[in-house]
C-alpha cells in the first residue's frame, strides 16, 4: 500500500483528515502511566509514550486507554510497526524527552501520533524482524553505553546506558511522590561491576513497567539499564556521591531477558561479556550482598557535619 513518512506527515498533517499507513521502528518506550481519578469514569485510564522513527526522523507516539493492556508489552524497543487509521495531534509540551542514541537524527517535536480504540480505530500490525527489508530505510536502535571508568568524567543529568554484573541488591523501598500525598514511588538500590574500575555502578532503580524484571534482580545476574541519568552531589565531594537513576524511558533487563535485544550487538556489551568469561564465579559470589538497609548518599561521619 502507499506509505507516508514522518517527515511528510509533519508538512501535510493540517490539510488532511485521513493519513496513509506508517512504517516505523520503536526506539524508546516510556513507563505505563495510570491517570485514573475517582470522579472520572474511564474503564482503562492508561497512557504510554513511545519514540518511533523511520528514514526521515523521529516522532512521539501515544498509546491510549484499553490499547495499553493489549499492546504495551508487545511493543518493545526495536519492534517494527505498521500503523493504519491513526490520529495526529499537536505535541504535549511537558512530556519527558529521552536522549536519542543517534544524535544526528531529526526530531519532529511539533506533532505526535495518537493511537486510540475509536475516532479513528487504529489498526496496529507488528512486522517480524526477519521480514523487515533494508530498502525500507528504518533506522537501527543505537545506544550510549558507558563503562564504570568513564562515569566519573560525565556531567550531572547526562543520559547513558550501562551493563554490569550485580554484586549487591537492596530491598524494595518506598518514597512519597509528594509530601503528605498517598502515592509512593517504589525503588531499590543495586551495585554492578564491569571490570573497568575498582568502584561499582551505584544504581537507583525505580520500579518501571517491568515488575517481572524489577522483582528478580539478584546478585550475579547480568544487568542492563538503558536511559539512566547521572546524579552527582555538586556541593561537597563530587566523586563520592555519583550514582545513576532511572528516567521515564528506562528499560531494565536481567539474565534470561537479553536474547534478541538490540543492545547485544553493541561493542561495549560484547567487551563486558568477554570480561565475565575471565572471572571466577566462586570469587565473585563471595563479594555479593543482598537486602538490608542502604543509606545513600552516606551521612557524614559525625553529628557536627550532619
TrEMBL record:
Molecular functions (GO terms): single-stranded DNA binding
Protein name, UniProt field: RADX protein
Lineage top rank: taxon: Eukaryota
Pfam (any one): RADX
Native organism: Scopus umbretta
Amino acid at each position: 500500500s502507499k506509505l507516508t513518512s514522518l517527515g511528510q506527515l509533519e508538512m501535510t498533517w493540517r490539510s488532511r483528515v485521513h493519513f496513509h499507513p506508517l512504517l516505523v521502528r520503536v526506539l524508546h518506550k516510556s513507563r505505563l502511566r495510570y491517570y485514573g481519578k475517582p470522579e472520572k469514569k474511564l474503564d482503562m485510564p492508561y497512557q504510554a509514550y513511545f519514540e518511533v522513527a523511520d528514514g526521515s526522523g523521529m516522532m512521539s507516539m501515544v498509546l491510549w486507554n484499553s490499547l495499553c493492556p493489549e499492546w504495551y508489552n508487545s511493543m518493545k524497543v526495536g519492534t517494527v510497526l505498521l500503523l493504519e487509521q491513526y490520529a495526529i495531534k499537536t505535541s504535549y509540551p511537558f512530556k519527558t524527552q529521552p536522549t536519542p542514541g543517534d544524535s544526528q537524527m531529526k526530531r519532529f517535536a511539533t506533532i505526535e501520533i495518537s493511537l486510540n480504540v475509536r475516532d479513528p480505530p487504529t489498526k496496529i500490525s507488528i512486522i517480524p524482524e526477519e521480514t523487515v527489508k533494508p530498502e525500507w530505510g528504518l533506522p537501527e536502535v543505537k545506544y550510549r553505553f558507558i563503562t564504570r571508568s568513564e562515569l566519573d568524567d560525565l556531567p550531572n543529568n547526562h543520559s547513558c546506558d550501562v551493563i554490569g554484573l550485580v554484586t549487591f541488591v537492596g530491598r524494595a523501598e518506598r518514597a512519597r511522590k509528594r509530601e503528605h500525598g498517598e502515592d509512593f514511588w517504589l525503588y531499590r538500590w543495586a551495585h554492578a561491576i564491569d571490570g573497568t574500575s575498582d568502584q561499582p555502578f551505584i544504581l537507583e532503580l525505580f520500579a518501571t513497567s517491568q515488575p517481572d524484571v524489577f522483582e528478580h534482580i539478584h546478585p550475579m545476574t547480568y544487568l542492563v539499564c538503558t536511559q539512566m541519568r547521572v546524579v552527582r552531589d555538586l556541593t561537597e565531594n563530587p566523586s563520592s556521591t555519583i550514582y545513576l537513576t532511572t528516567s521515564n524511558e528506562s528499560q531494565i533487563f536481567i539474565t534470561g531477558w537479553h536474547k534478541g535485544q538490540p543492545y547485544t550487538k553493541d561493542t561495549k556489551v560484547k567487551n563486558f561479556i568477554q570480561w565475565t568469561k575471565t572471572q571466577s564465579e566462586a570469587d565473585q559470589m563471595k563479594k555479593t550482598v543482598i537486602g538490608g538497609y542502604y543509606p545513600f548518599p552516606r551521612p557524614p561521619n559525625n553529628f557536627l557535619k550532619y
